[in-house]
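Example for tutorial group B:
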């Protein structure tokens, strides 16, 4: 189960706890409106951010930042330690209150300069206040107010992250933005979207752009062939991260459980050849007596059912520890 870094969790708790009782009720109402807005899955108008004011930015930090952090951090866990060079430059596009900046700094503590582009002044204000509470790389991050439109030039960076943005912009702008980032990223382009059918479709479109540009797929795909789930009507490629809910998180969402499962689809691509997994586990493993059954996207381009029997001791031990989203074998 993912929990936020301690300094970040403490910072969010302080912000949420500083509001009055009536303010906390208002925060819950704002959270519910934002959930409805994000679930509508319709593009926003450039220059008119969803986090338009302080209350929206605070609601986002309390209810949405943990899930976004967990999804991006889970993606980064699939990459080797040396995927990012020491002192690499990280650029986060439309990063809200800074989830990706925290996730990258947690995964690669030796990361160099981090820059976050965001159009909401309120989100930048909250993000800076949270960053000021740490002594790590996030404290050194730069925040720039930029509108994400067809004229945006992200500038050169070693690693570029785009987290949960493509669902907020229309198709022509999505295409233009991904094209710009493919031209700007030196080492890695990381895109994360909601784990819905539409989110998966947007990842597929970005995947096609990366392949057409001659980029290599790092994860989750073990091949450059057509996605075996592309024509499925009731199935699509997505993964899951279990998120710890704080007291403020539960209160804002009106939730009772101490956790939630964040579903996401993603793409990691690199401009040069890099090691790929031989296969990727697409579902929760099924455990039966003496057997583990896996659904695996194979390097052949097929999604296949793989059965690992106890008599194959080495593979069986590994399969008993495997999780949804892990490489296999």
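The residue assignment follows.
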């Amino acid at each position: 189960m993912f929990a936020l870094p301690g300094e970040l969790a403490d910072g969010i708790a302080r912000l949420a706890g500083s509001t009055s009782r009536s303010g906390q009720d208002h925060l819950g109402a704002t959270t519910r409106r934002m959930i409805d807005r994000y679930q509508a899955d319709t593009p926003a108008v450039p220059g008119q951010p969803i986090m338009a004011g302080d209350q929206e930015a605070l609601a986002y930090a309390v209810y949405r930042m943990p899930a976004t952090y967990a999804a991006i951090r889970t993606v980064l866990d699939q990459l080797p330690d040396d995927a990012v060079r020491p002192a690499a430059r990280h650029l986060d596009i439309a990063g809200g209150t800074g989830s990706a900046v925290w996730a990258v700094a947690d995964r690669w503590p030796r990361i160099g300069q981090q820059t976050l582009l965001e159009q909401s002044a309120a989100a930048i204000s909250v993000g800076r206040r949270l960053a000021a509470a740490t002594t790590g790389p996030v404290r050194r991050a730069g925040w720039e107010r930029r509108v994400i439109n067809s004229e945006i030039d992200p500038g050169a960076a070693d690693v570029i992250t785009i987290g949960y943005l493509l669902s907020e912009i229309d198709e022509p702008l999505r295409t233009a933005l991904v094209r710009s980032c493919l031209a700007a990223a030196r080492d890695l382009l990381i895109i994360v979207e909601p784990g819905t059918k539409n989110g998966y479709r947007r990842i597929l479109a970005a995947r096609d752009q990366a392949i057409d540009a001659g980029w290599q797929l790092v994860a989750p795909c073990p091949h450059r062939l057509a996605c075996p789930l592309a024509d499925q009507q009731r199935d699509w490629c997505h993964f899951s991260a279990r998120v710890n809910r704080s007291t403020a998180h539960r209160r804002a969402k009106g939730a009772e459980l101490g956790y939630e499962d964040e579903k996401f689809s993603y793409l990691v691509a690199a401009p040069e050849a890099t090691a790929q997994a031989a296969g990727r586990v697409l579902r929760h493993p099924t455990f039966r007596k003496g057997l583990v059954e896996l659904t695996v996207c194979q390097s052949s381009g097929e999604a296949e059912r793989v059965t690992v029997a106890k008599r194959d001791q080495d593979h069986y031990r590994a399969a008993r520890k495997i999780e949804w989203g892990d490489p296999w074998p």
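The chain has two domains: 6-270, 279-321. Compare this with the pattern of hydrophobic and polar residues in the output above.
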